[in-house]
Amino acid sequence: MAYRAAFRCIAGCPGEHPVNQPYYRCARCGGLLEVAHDLDALKAQSPAAWKKLFAERFMSTRWPYGSGVWGKKEWVAPHVDDENVVSMFEGGTNLFWAERYGRKLGLRELWIKLCGNSHTGSFKDLGMTVLVSTVKQMMAEGRDISAIACASTGDTSAALSAYAAAAGIRSIVILPRGKISTAQLVQPLSNGAAVLAVDTDFDGCMRLVSEITEREGVYLANSMNSLRLEGQKTVAIEIAQQFDWDVPDWVVIPGGNLGNVSALWAGFKMMMDLGLADRAPRICVAQSSRANPLYQSYQRGFERFEAVQAEKTHASAIQIGNPVSYTKAIRALEATGGRVEQASEAELADAAARADRAGMFSCPHTGVALAALEKLVADDTIRAGDRVVVISTASGLKFPEFKTQYHERTLERVPAPAHANSPIDLPNDVGTVRDAVRRILDMPLD
């Protein structure tokens, strides 16, 4: 069976564009595009047959189908030949049962989708494998592409630089200078990307890269490019697959540029369209209170959307005041009866620390989602019997300063960390150490 996909305008303008050409916005209205698949062709295979095929491929060694993304190739990127796939075995990440943390919140089924357990440490790998593979396919077809570029607050740059390096394609990264962690900055440098550190914020970097990719013949790698979202939508499909093709009641996800939110909905909607699911979960988008344009719009019933000037937040990857994919995100929330919540700096830091006490090691963006979850449980929006999945977007290991400063009680804008845990300095004396151990054993386990 020949499967195909094409770009279409999300506003419904007529016509379509090939996915192996550099289209980012509708030529008629300037709106965002989305990837539309030939559902009739996909429906020729039954839901049971798709489930069987996906199960046979999942985490296998058959190239390229062992990848969590490329195991769903027909649903994601049928235009890429297998030999042009650039994959690092992305996806297939742990659905962690946070039983102890959930029990403290009064939930029976709390799961954390650990998307940071990926090659570069974040969910961005899922989209970047599709985008870079498409560029490699375009180059194989004779199209002249000199580089791939992105604006980034850290994780996108790491994913782009790694996948571009594996493909032998030049990458250019524009970052807001001094506003990402050292661990995030060193990733694109190590992979040989040209890193431009600019005195602006993410929104300023986004304006610059949009201008450059329009005029310099450089391919755009940000989520304005809908190909990225095709890879990211596999998170939804993978969650359902891990639950034996059931879907959760709620999914809570941090939101910055908001592409991941719309990708999540696209995955659930595609499963419903093709008969692999009969419903979608409610989606909650969690934002930092210092970069919360979607939250503010939600408070107004989505009557209007206004960009904000994002303030510095520990959740640096979602420090975005003018998100590109807000229209798609609102559509996803309206379709699922979703919610938008926000978290302060202290709330996100303490929520991350509470989850860590139950065995996690949460990045600050996951902390925003966890803080939103706690609020929804507290106001009885999420009930004790609901099955809830929180999307953890990145590894906590990418944010050592955030974790260290929290426990040292020096974290900016968090003056009284509720769960700080400092080392106990002792002399080299067995009696003193024994006394300290006895005191610890007398304490209740947190």
How would you explain this protein's 3D organization?
By secondary structure, this protein is of the alpha/beta class. The chain has a domain at 95-120 and 228-408: Rossmann fold. 39% of the residues lie in helices and 14% in strands. It contains 17 helices and 13 strands. It has helices spanning 39-43, 47-57, 73-76, 99-105, 124-140, 155-167, 182-190, 202-215, 227-232, 234-242, 259-273, 293-299, 326-336, 345-356, 364-378, 400-408, 430-441, and strands at residues 5-9, 17-18, 33-37, 95-97, 109-114, 148-151, 171-176, 194-198, 219-220, 250-254, 282-288, 339-343, 387-392. The strands form three sheets. Strands 4-5-13-10-11-12 form a six-stranded mixed β-sheet, with helices on both faces. A four-stranded parallel β-sheet has the order 8-7-6-9. Helix 10 packs across helix 11 and helix 14 (345-356) crosses helix 15 (364-378). The protein is globular and about 75 Å long.
Tally of DSSP β-strands: 13
The spatial strand order of the largest sheet comes to: 4-5-13-10-11-12
Helix content bin = 25-40%
The rounded distance between the terminal residues' Cα atoms is: 56 Å
Task: Give me the CATH architecture of the domain at 95-120 and 228-408, please.
Answer: 3-Layer(aba) Sandwich
CATH fold field value of the domain at 95-120 and 228-408: Rossmann fold
Unreliable runs: none
Shape: globular
Rg estimate, integer Å: 22 Å
Report the structural category. alpha/beta
Percentage beta strand: 5-15%
